[in-house]
Structures are given as C-alpha cells and as structure tokens.
Design a protein that fits this description.
Helix content of chain A: 55-70%
Strand order of the largest sheet of chain B: 6-9-10-3-11-12
Distance between the termini of chain A: 16 Å
CATH topology of chain A: ABC transporter involved in vitamin B12 uptake, BtuC
Radius of gyration of chain A: 22 Å
Number of helices of chain B: 17
CATH class of chain A: Mainly Alpha
Structural class of chain A: mainly alpha
Strand order of the largest sheet of chain A: 1-2
Oligomer: heterotrimer
Number of helices of chain A: 17
Low-confidence stretches of chain A: 1-47, 361-380
CATH architecture of chain A: Orthogonal Bundle
Mean pLDDT of chain A: 80
Largest sheet of chain A: 2 strands, antiparallel
Largest sheet of chain B: 6 strands, mixed
Order of helices and strands of chain A: HHHHHHHHEEHHHHHHHHH
Structural class of chain B: alpha/beta
Shape of chain A: globular
Radius of gyration of chain B: 25 Å
Largest interface: A-B, 69 and 94 residues
Number of domains of chain A: 1
Distance between the termini of chain B: 54 Å
Chains: A mainly alpha, B alpha/beta, C mainly alpha
Low-confidence stretches of chain B: 1-25, 520-527
Mean pLDDT of chain B: 84
Number of strands of chain B: 24
Chain lengths: 380, 527, 318
C-alpha cells in the first residue's frame, strides 16, 4: 500500500474518520489473505537477492536500456557520434539537467516538486553577473551571497510545504513568479553586463581532460548517490516519502527532513545557473525557461515514482542522458523546429509510458500524494 | 415484489418494511465453489455458502480465512476466478458493483462507500436523485427527500448539504447502512457494520436487520464480534483457509465451538502465567495531562514491571492519550519518565526519553509498507546503526538479526518489502522496530488487532518478558479478555478522563460494565 | 444539534475578498481608471480567455487531474486562424466550429490516454502540450498572420451597448450555475474525492475522464479563438502563459488541489483578481515589473490562507 493517508503538520490526533475500528485492522483484506495463506511470510514476488534487485529497479534498468538504444541510433546514423569529443559534449549538456535533477529527485521522492528552478537559476546568473560587473575581484563573496540566497529561497519553499501545508507545486510556482518579478524589478527588464572572463575560462576549462561542468555533475552525482544510499538522512527521506505519518511516529523529524530537498534544489539550480552563464558567456533573463519541467521529467523517466518513496538518483542520471540524447538526435532526423518539437513530445509520452507502473496513479501525483495530505490535513 | 432495486421514488421509509415486500420467498442465495487467487496465492479455494430468504446468516472466520474476499465477490467489487453465484435460481454475473446492485444485492462496505466531499444528501441518493432536469440535480428536492428518508429511520443529521467528511465515523457508518437499506435490496450484505457504532446504534441496526429478515430478505452478517453474531444470526457459516468449514444453526453453536471451527483446533488462548513483576520504581508519572477537546486532566502512574490496561468505548480519548504521551499530539501537563521530565514536543524526543509507541494501524501509521524489512526495523534506531550520519551495514545487520531472533519473525531476506509479510509478521516487525530502542515505557495501542492467535500468544509472552526487565507497559485493547489476563490494573476512559480504576484480579463483566457504565446512567460496582 | 444553515466554504469566498480589496486599492489610487464602457471592454477581453480556461481547469482539478495541454490547444488554434485570414463568409464560421472541434479532439485524446493507461495527467498533458505546440509551430513558424474577418466581427463589438466580453464572461457564470449541480460535475468531484469509492458506487470513470478533458480542450479552443481575434494575429506559443496562470487562478479561487471541492465561479473571480494586479501597479506609477512579483505573491498568500483554513477545520474536527 503506497498510498497512505497522513496526519496534519502539527501533532494532531488521528481524525476519527480514518480510524478503522474493525477488528481486522487490515486495509487490504485481499492482500492480507493472500499473505496469510503463506504463513512463512515469503511471497513469490519478493525482492530477495539479485533477481529481486532487478525487479525493484526495473524502470531504471529500462531507462538505461533506452540510453543505450538512443546512443546506438546515433552511432548508426552519424559516424563520429561515438567519439569521445561528441560524448563529452553530450555529457556537458546533460550536466545541467543532471545537477538540477539532484534536488528535483529529492523533492519528488518526498512527493513534492520544485517549479521555482527556472528563476532561481536565472536569478543566480543574473545577480552574480550584475554584481561582479565583469571583474573577477569579488568572485568568492558573490558566490557566497548567491548560495545564501539560494538557501533562503529553498527554506521559504520548504517552510511553506512542511510547516504551513502548502502543496509543493503551488508553493514553488508562486515562488517562481515572485522571483521573476523581483528580478525584473532589479534589472529593470534587461541586463548589460557580461560575466567576468575568469569565470568563463574556469567553467569552460578542463581538468584531466574532463570539462569542469561535467566534473561538477560527477561531484553532485557522487554526493547524491551517497546521500540516498549510505546515510541515515537517506533512510529518513525514503520513509517520509513512503509514509510520512508512520515516519513521524517512528521518530523521524518529518518537517525538518522536508526542508532539505527544496534547499538542495535551489542550490542546484543556482549552481547550474552559474555554470550555464560561464558556458554561454552571458547571463540573460530567459536562461531558466527551458528548465521548468526538464528536471522533473528526467526524474520521472529515470524510474522514480511521482508518488514518492520509490526511486533513486541513479535513475535520474539515465533520465538526464535520455533527454540530452533525444535533443541531440532529433535534429538529425527532423530538420524543422516544429518536427523536432512534435517528436520530442511523442518520445516523452513513450518514455513516460515505459516508466510503467511507477508513473501511474490518478490525479496530479505530486499534489495529491500522501505528503500533501500529511502536511495539509487529512482526507477521509 | 421481485427486484425492488433502483426504485426512483424512495419516499419516506418507515423503520418497518425495508425488505422486498410480501411474497419474498425463493430459493435464496447459493454461492458454490468460489475460487479466487491474488497473484499466485489462493484466497478462496472453492468456498460455498447458502442462505435462505428470511434468514439472518452470520459469516465468521479469522483474518485471511477468505470471508472478505467472498464479500468482495458477492458485492461485485472483485470477479471470481471460478464458481457460481445463484440467486432465486438464476445464475448471476457479478462483474461490477453495479451488477450486484441490479441483482438486488445491497452491500454495506466495511470501508464505507461514501464520497467524503459530496454532501450527505448527494451520497444518500447517488445515482437515484429524485429530480433531475437536463442532467442537473435539483438541490431542493434532493435535500428534502434526504431529510424525509432519514426521518423515516428516526435520524436527523441537521444540514444535509454539508459534506460527509464532517460526520463522525459512527454517523457515517449509520448513513452507509441507511443508504443501502433504502434501495430495498433482496440480499443485505453487512461487512463489519458495527465496528464504529455506539451501543444504542448497534441496537438500532439489530432492529432494522431483524425487520429486514422478517420482511423476507436475506441478511449476510460478517463480523469479528462473535457475541453479536450469536445474538443476531439464525445461522452461522465458518470460514477457514479459503473454505467454508461448517454451517450450523446459531443455537447449536457457542463461542468456544465457533473459535474451534475458525482455528481448526480446540483453543485456549495462550496467555503467559501471571507473575508479579511489579517493582517499586515508578517508570512513568503523569499529572494533569490535557489535550482538548479529547483529553482532560488525566493522572496516571506506571510502576516498573507493571502492565496498565486502558479500556473504553471507541473515541473516548484512548488514541489521544497515547499520542500525547508519545509527543505526537499537542498537550499540557506533566509527564515524567524514570524521574526525568519529558517535554512532549515530538516523537523523536519521546524515543530518546525511553518511550516507545506501537501505533494503532500498522499499515497506516506504523510501517512504511513499500520499504524493506531492514529499513523498517532500523528506522527508529538510525543513530545506533550509523556513525556521523553514515550507515554501518554490520550494525544494521546485527539489529535485524537481533530482532528476528527475539521476535521470531519469519522472512527470507531482510531486503524484502514489508508488505510481502503476513499481518502477524508485519506486526512483529513493528514491535521489533519499537523494541530496538530499548524503551523503558512501552505504549501499545491494540497491538494484537488483526493478528493470528499464534502471534498473539507470542506478543503476550514478549510483554511479560519486558516486564520482568522492569519495563512498564500501558496497553489499550478492545479485547476485554486480553485486559483481564494481562493487565495488573485497568483504567477506563470516558470522554477523555479516567472514569474508573480497576485492580486485578478483574472479570470481563466488571470491565465491560465499567466501559458501558461511562456511557449511561447506571452506576456499576468495581470489582 | 447541528446547524441547519450551510456555511459557505471559506476558501471559495476568499477570491471575492481579494477582488474587493484590490478594487478598493485601485480606485483609491486612481478613481478615474474605469472611465467608460471601453475601459471595461478592454479588461474583460483579457479576463474572458483566462476565465474560461480557469473554468475548465477547475473541473480537471475536481478529478485530481490537470491539463497542461491547454497551452498547446490555444497555440494551435491561434496559429491556424492566423494563416486563414482570407477565409470569408460561411466558411469562416465553419472554421471556428472546426477549431472547437479540434479542441474537443485534443482533449478527448488526452482523456483516452489518461483513462486507458492510468498515467499521471500531469505527464500526459505535458507531452501533448509539447506535441501541439510543435504542430502550431509547423502551421505558423513566426508570429503574425491575419485572422478571418467574419470571426473578428463576431467577437468584437457590443450588443445593445454591453460589450461582448462582459456578456461572454457573464455567460460562463451562468453556465457554472447550471453545471455545478449537474451529474457530470457530481461525478467528477466523486472521482477526485475518492477514486476507489467512486468506482464502488458506479461512477463511469473512463467516460467521465474523457468528457472532462474534452471539455477542457473545447474551452481552450474557444480561448484561442478569442485571443486570435483580440490580437488580430496568431502565435505558436500563444497558449503557454495560460497554463500556469490558469492554475494560479484556480488556486486563488480556493479549489482544493486534492480534488473534490472548489467552484469554477470562484476560480474565475480568482482570474479577475490575478489580472487586476497589473492595473493596480500601473495606477501607482511604480515599475510595472512589480506586478509580476505581486501575482506570484498573491498566489502564495492565497494558498497559505487556504492551507491554514484547512488546518483550522481539521483541528475543530479532531
């Protein structure tokens, strides 16, 4: 039973309407009967061993399969596609999605989402561009300021979601609009300074043959995987995403846990903004627009359940690669921008379908999910 | 006469005459050889059931025996893999709930079939609204018809335009029953209809059911409350392991015989022998615990090694008491655990103070069902199995092994999903998680609900073992026999306050009297 | 005993309060803002398309669904109209009907995919939005074009002195007065309130899903026609801004994100409130960019109050 009802954000009694006073106490009597019929507790469809692992992460395995298929298509179509230069370019493009995808993975694992990524990203780039005024002198202080603001943005989002009970999609949507407004006011509709050369050089440079941007993604990926797999925080996060009220009664500080995804997401978006600014050599107000849903799509396509509780960043990596490969391949087959877009949508639909059971469920998943119920009060 | 379902003019329905009308005799209901599997496991293995019109037929069985599946088949919620259902000699095809309704089978679902955000009136008349013009339902006609219909059952719920979610659970259960009765089915299927009802509502239901049978309908009454089944039913069928194992007239059966048939063996519920483990030290002292509106000025003391039972009708503050003690609910008052004051701010703090809670509904509030057994077991003790935030696999394995041994949990691989375990084993995982923190005060809320008899015995033994180590236990149970056999003392809650205090040795009658006495004017003598 | 009076849900009353507050603020700063029927017409011409998509989005939210493809439908509608500027006479009216038919088609396909596959409406409509925006791009690569004459004269201009924009918006409110107690809406709310129980009591989930999204598509097409005529041109991305603003309007209108409750009228009033903000900012002479900020801020305020109201209600029931 992944769809659980949850309690209110402040300690409240379990509303009477959810108390099932029946002595059975089993919500899914059928499942219980199926399980009881086998008192040893072993079910054929268990998740033991390697076979079990494969079953549990099937959507992610399918996603990586899709990556290989797409890559193969490219290799067949274009000589040089499989060359290191091209791969490197693809990975660099994927890095932006991948970095944003870290925070988005955490948000979606807890049944939420962050739609304030576009203007957090743009804000970081534009703000630092304006403040640096083209010189490298104050780089570190400006970076710290941007990071601090990102943490602030994430905190506000997180407090709204975890403590006030605002559904994540709305909270972050509102934040996105508010940031857009503030930035427009701040820049009066346009900016005239470009990023300092030092930054541009640093970002487009390579370390041991690996572009700095890709290196950043690798670092983020390592942090993400370790966080989710090997830390107590990761365990708590999954618990909150699966059943927040049970997690609370198990001693998890649910509200504090819920703050982290939004802070991480804002930091990730800011980092992506700075990197993008260095990469393109400019900061402009529409920088963030393409990234509204991209991160979330990468997460979903990578096999993480929109309902929360299931999935991993490893899948998001595949999702980012899929999106990048699709963008790279489409222009090879369809030359018009329109054709590319149509094909893009069709592939998206297909990829979402391939993510299978995990993408299913009714309603706006990250809205209706137990997290939202937990935070905003119960439904009968 | 005949198929009286789907009447478009419900009119006021007096308490008498719910049934299909005179001449409602026929061959009755026959379910033969019903087979149903869920993913490779057979929930029903060729079960059969026969009921005649004019009869109140009880259906009992342990969890997992198949009676819930049978109900689902008959109500059309689930299609069987094999077998036939015949009503009045005509074979039925029940592929959807609608088919069942059209066939004259009215179901009062255990989980209720009311839509929370729709109004009371809309729920009552769903699909059969009195006045529909151009696809639009006339609200005035709807509400007044609803008021009339409810009045016919001597019910008044005030503003019928408010959403059903604003009703209490017991009111909703009554509404569900009325909704089904109004459609004048031939077969009335009641699945755990009294679970949330107050005693006077249970009386109301019994009266309605008896009248329904007198008018020629067939009632199928499914319940865990054997006393009710015996009191109400003419005939009882027992289910075990996916099959019907016997069908007898109610006069020929008593509770012991019923339980024997349900379990397949003669049973004496195994309680561990009473020992005096009560020590001198006070594990927990509570003064003036209040959490309005549900809890008022509760004082309580639990000594080391003592088991304090909590009794009371549903909704008298038990849940709130436990949550408040655990810091999961805002409350005022003093709580001390082992002499140290506990600031009841958060469950996490309560855990650190040495309090453990086994919550009410393991599926909803206890376990994260889609997580692994290992993750569930370790969830409250993450600090102990990690260093500087990083998990230590060896320590986690030790914790899992320890819990498995101590509680005799049956599983093949700790990386299995907890949902793949049986109810009893799931409960053990929950207990394992709580005990892994070595609490000094153990709060158990109906910890043996929905658990098979074998596991229950193991849980009782576990409780005694903890007590002999000086742990204090507060446990709430809706099963009076458990309180009698396990508790050293029993407090009875009524309206959020301690109404009565009973000392062992107690009798079941004295507890029941105290529990019911809180709800009525009769004064009762404590044992 | 229980009160016999029905207390209107606080959340759906809020948008009226927002509008009142904003109106007072605007008139306090610039009393001469509304100086005649033209000023009213201009404003309602902007309100109508947002109101109609907010109406449809409310119904989608009733089912706990959402329709992002309204952006694509609007875009493709304006684009097709913009390349058919030379169409005359009866053909033009047929074309308009065809556009609405196209909207129904787009929505029905959405509904079929969602109902059949069980996939998240968010993801499905995200994909179809991309597809239809792409088709719009194929039809009209660059903004511009011209709209058929008969369409323009149909939509612009007053009837008996009342601007059509006001009449059309009013018609939406009348439509809601009828729809809110219809079996259609009752079923939608049941589906969103509790899908399992809805199935148990016999709601035709598949049919209603398709109908709901088809209705959404039709509304989006009508909005697209309106926009094309107002702008006298088309754009392959005309609809994109309406997606998030329609959600904002619905949220400000107090509908529940979890389905089951809300009011299309309140959502439309929410749309009005949302669109009043640029007027307020313009009247106060501060940078017009503040209106973007304020709109986001209003959204957060509205939903915060809504969430707090739910908490109060739940605590009373506890």
């Amino acid at each position: 039973m992944t769809d659980q009802e949850r309690e209110g954000a402040t300690p409240a009694v379990l509303p009477e309407d959810d108390r099932r006073a029946a002595d059975t106490g089993e919500a899914a009597a059928g499942a219980d009967e199926a399980a009881s019929a086998n008192p040893e507790g072993e079910q054929a469809g268990g998740y033991a061993g390697l076979a079990g692992l494969a079953r549990r992460y099937r959507p992610t395995i399918i996603a990586y399969g899709l990556v290989l298929v797409l890559f193969a298509i490219g290799t067949i179509h274009t000589p040089g596609f499989a060359g290191w230069t091209n791969i490197r370019t693809l990975l660099v493009f994927g890095s932006f999605i991948g970095i944003i995808g870290f925070g988005q993975t955490l948000c979606i694992l807890t049944g939420g989402i962050d739609l304030s990524v576009p203007w957090t990203l743009t804000g970081a780039a534009v703000l630092s561009s304006v403040l640096l005024k083209g010189s490298d002198a104050n780089f570190v202080p400006v970076c710290l300021l941007v990071a601090g603001l990102a943490i602030g943005i994430g905190l506000i989002n997180g407090i709204g979601v975890a403590y006030v009970g605002v559904p994540p999609i709305i909270m972050t949507l509102g934040m996105n609009g508010a940031l857009q407004g503030l930035l427009l006011v701040y820049t009066n509709g346009g900016i005239s300074s470009s990023p300092p050369q030092g930054l541009v050089n640093a970002v487009t440079d390579q370390v041991l043959g690996i572009p700095v941007i890709l290196l950043s993604w690798i670092v983020v990926a390592v942090i993400a995987i370790v966080l989710l797999s090997a830390t107590t925080f990761g365990r708590r996060l999954y618990a909150v995403g699966t059943n927040a009220s049970a997690a609370k009664l198990a001693g998890v500080r649910v509200q504090r846990v819920l703050l982290v995804p939004y802070i991480v997401s804002a930091l990730g978006a800011s980092l992506a903004g700075l990197l993008l600014m260095g990469f393109t050599g400019q900061a402009y107000l529409t920088m963030g627009d393409p990234y509204l849903f991209t991160g979330a799509v990468a997460v979903a396509v990578g096999g993480t359940s929109i309902l929360g509780g299931k999935g991993h960043y490893v899948g998001t990596i595949a999702g980012a690669l899929i999106l990048t490969l699709v963008s790279a391949l489409l222009p090879l087959f369809w030359t018009s921008a329109a054709g590319v877009q149509i094909a893009d949508g069709a592939i998206l639909l297909g990829a979402v379908y391939a993510a299978g059971r995990r993408a299913r469920g009714n309603g706006t998943g990250w809205l209706r999910h137990s997290l939202a119920s937990f935070v905003a009060g119960n439904k009968a | 006469m005949g198929n009286a379902v789907g009447s478009s003019n419900p009119g006021p329905a007096p308490v008498e005459g719910h049934g299909p009308g005179p001449g409602g005799e026929g061959l009755g209901l026959q379910m033969l050889g019903i087979v149903k599997s869920y993913g490779g496991v057979r929930a029903l293995r060729g079960a059969s059931l026969e009921g005649s019109f004019g009869e109140v037929h009880g259906l009992v069985g342990e969890n997992g025996a198949g009676k819930s599946t049978l109900v689902k088949v008959l109500s059309g919620a689930v299609a069987p893999d094999g077998g036939t259902v015949t009503l009045n000699g005509r074979e039925l095809r029940l592929s959807s709930p609608r088919d069942a309704v059209d066939a004259g089978i009215g179901t009062v679902f255990q989980e209720l079939s009311l839509i929370p955000d729709l109004s009371i009136a809309a729920n009552l008349f769903y699909g059969r609204e009195p006045q529909v013009r151009l696809g639009r339902v006339s609200q005035r006609a709807l509400v007044s018809s609803a008021r009339q219909a409810l009045a016919g059952y001597r019910l008044d719920y005030g503003d019928l335009r408010r959403p059903v979610r604003s009703l209490r659970l017991s009111e909703r259960q009554v509404l569900e029953i009325v909704k089904t009765l109004m459609r004048r089915p031939r077969v009335l299927l009641l699945d755990e209809p009294t679970s949330a009802l107050l005693p006077q509502q249970v009386d109301w239901l019994f009266t309605a059911v008896r009248q329904f049978a007198r008018d020629g309908g067939l009632v199928l009454f499914i319940s865990h409350r054997l006393a009710e089944v015996e009191a109400l039913c003419d005939r009882i069928t027992v289910f075990r392991n996916g099959l019907d194992v016997g069908s007898r007239s109610a006069e020929d059966l008593d509770e012991a015989r019923l339980v024997e048939m349900m379990l397949g063996r003669s049973v004496q519920r195994v309680y561990p022998p009473r020992e005096s483990t009560v020590g001198e030290g006070v594990v927990c002292r509570v003064k003036g615990l209040s959490s309005p509106p549900a809890l008022h000025e509760v004082d309580l003391e639990v000594r080391s090694g003592e088991i304090v039972g909590v009794a009371g009708l549903d909704g008298q503050g038990q849940a709130e008491l436990f949550l408040a003690l655990f810091g999961a609910r805002a409350a005022r008052g003093e709580v001390e655990v082992e002499g140290r004051p506990m600031h009841h701010a958060a469950p996490a703090r309560a855990l650190r103070s040495g309090v453990g809670l086994v919550p009410e509904d393991r599926a909803r509030d206890g376990l994260c069902l889609s997580l692994t057994i290992r993750d569930n077991l370790a969830l409250s003790s993450l600090r102990d199995v990690s260093r500087m935030g990083f998990l230590r696999r060896a320590r986690m394995r030790a914790l899992v092994d320890g819990a498995q041994r101590r509680l005799k949990i049956k599983f093949a691989d700790p990386r299995q999903q907890v949902s793949s375990l049986s109810g009893g084993n799931q409960q053990k995982v929950l207990l394992g998680r709580v005990l892994a923190c070595s609490p000094r005060l153990l709060l158990m809320f109906d910890a043996t609900r929905g658990v098979d008899v074998g596991t229950k015995s193991e849980i009782y033994a576990l409780m005694r073992a903890e007590c002999s180590r000086g742990v204090g236990i507060i446990f709430y149970s809706s099963d009076v026999a458990e309180l009698v056999n396990m508790a050293d003392r029993v407090i009875v809650l009524h309206d959020g306050a301690v109404f009565r205090h009973l000392q062992a040795p107690m009798t079941e009658e004295s507890i029941v009297a105290a529990v019911v006495g809180g709800a009525g004017p009769t004064a009762l003598v404590a044992s | 005993m229980y009160s016999r009076l029905s207390v209107p849900s606080l959340s759906t009353v809020m948008p009226y309060i927002y509008v009142a507050v904003l109106a007072i603020a605007i008139l306090a700063v610039e009393p001469a803002l509304i100086d005649g029927p033209d000023a009213i017409d201009v404003r309602f011409s902007a309100v109508f398309p947002l109101a109609i998509v907010a109406f449809a989005q409310t119904l989608n939210l009733f089912t706990r669904g959402i329709d992002l493809s309204i952006g694509g439908t609007i875009s493709v509608t304006t684009s097709i109209l913009a390349v058919s500027g030379s169409v005359k006479g009866a053909d033009a009216y047929l074309e308009l009907l065809g556009m609405i038919g196209l909207g129904i088609f787009i929505g029905a396909v959405n509904g079929l995919v969602i109902a059949y596959s069980g996939l998240q409406p968010f993801l499905v409509t995200l994909a179809t939005w991309t597809i239809w925006d792409g088709i719009a791009l194929a039809v009209l690569p660059i903004e511009g074009g011209s709209v058929p004459g008969p369409a323009t004269s149909l939509i612009l201009g007053p009837i008996a002195g009342v601007p059509k924009s006001v009449l059309c918006t009013g018609a939406l409110f009348v439509l809601w007065a009828w729809l809110r107690h219809s079996r259609f809406v009752r079923d939608l709310r049941a589906m969103g309130s509790d899908a399992e129980r809805a199935r148990l009591i016999g709601v035709r989930m598949f049919t209603r899903t398709v109908q709901c999204y088809a209705f959404s598509g039709a509304c989006a097409a009508i909005a697209g026609i309106w926009i094309a005529v107002q702008e006298a041109s088309g754009s392959p991305t005309a609809g994109d801004e309406y997606i998030l603003t329609s959600i904002a309007a619905v949220v400000i209108g107090g509908a529940s994100i979890f389905g089951g409750t809300g009011s299309a009228a309140a959502s439309m009033v929410g749309a009005v409130a949302y669109l009043m903000i640029p007027d307020l900012i313009a009247a106060t002479n501060i940078s017009s960019f503040w209106s973007v900020f304020l709109q986001g801020f209003l959204l957060i305020v509205a939903v915060t109050l809504s969430a707090l109201a739910i908490r109060v209600r739940d605590r009373k029931l506890a």
